[in-house]
UniProtKB/TrEMBL annotation:
Residues 8-235 form the Heparan-alpha-glucosaminide N-acetyltransferase catalytic domain. Keywords: Membrane, Transmembrane, Transmembrane helix. The lineage of its organism: Archaea, Methanobacteriati, Methanobacteriota, Stenosarchaea group, Methanomicrobia. The keyword Transmembrane helix applies. This is Putative membrane protein. The chain crosses the membrane at residues 12-29, 49-70, 91-108, 114-132, 139-157, 177-198, 227-245. InterPro entries: HGSNAT_cat. It comes from the Archaea.
Amino acid sequence: MDVNPKERFFEVDALRAVAIVLMVIYHFFFDLDFFSISEFDMHSGLIVVIGRSAAILFIFLVGVSLTLSYSRASRCKSGKEIFIHNLKRGAGIFGWGLVITLVTATFLESGTIYFGILHLIGVSIIISYPFLKYRWFNLIAGLVLLFAGIPMDAAYVDYPWLLWIGLKPHGFYTLDYFPLIPWFGLVLLGIYTGNSLYPDYKRSFRMCDCEGNAGVRLLEYLGKKSLLIYLVHQPVIVGMLLLLTSF
């Protein structure tokens, strides 16, 4: 079967949309609590499940998407060209992470986001290139990093320079924190899954014939716009809440 390099796998975009919708829901309740409009328990219960599920799915799909773009690009581009493309793409997303760092440092009294989910995704896209060809190695390495996050979470240092890895100083507080350990492990598991389910840019499984469904098409569209939605949803939610509470 010939491979169409322009084809997108709608289920990946749809799942990414599910992740971004869950994230919007989580941040809506987070903002209600943060601005003392309504009180919610943000450390346990269903809200935490929604937030963590969104992040886990979103990061996992980064790995899956990286394998798809690599499989597609490797048919017509050299390894150097693919790496440069990933470098630019990752740097761009990391740059948006730095914008969030600047905004939170400027407008919040505490909780500056130094290495949040966009920082993680940007760096992951850049450093993932050597892993994209492999399958089982990524499964093992991903699990190792995930389990390494357990002792890392309880480890503290006297300086902040290794926050990006997962080593934080005592008393460190941030509103969003996704260090490479353990979260890059989830990206590697996504790469493993992508190489397993979509070898040579083809599905290795049967997919339901539901791409024409209106709901699926909506999710597919939202999934394609996930970065834009992520960047604008918080200002929109905060603006709406502040406007509503001003009356």
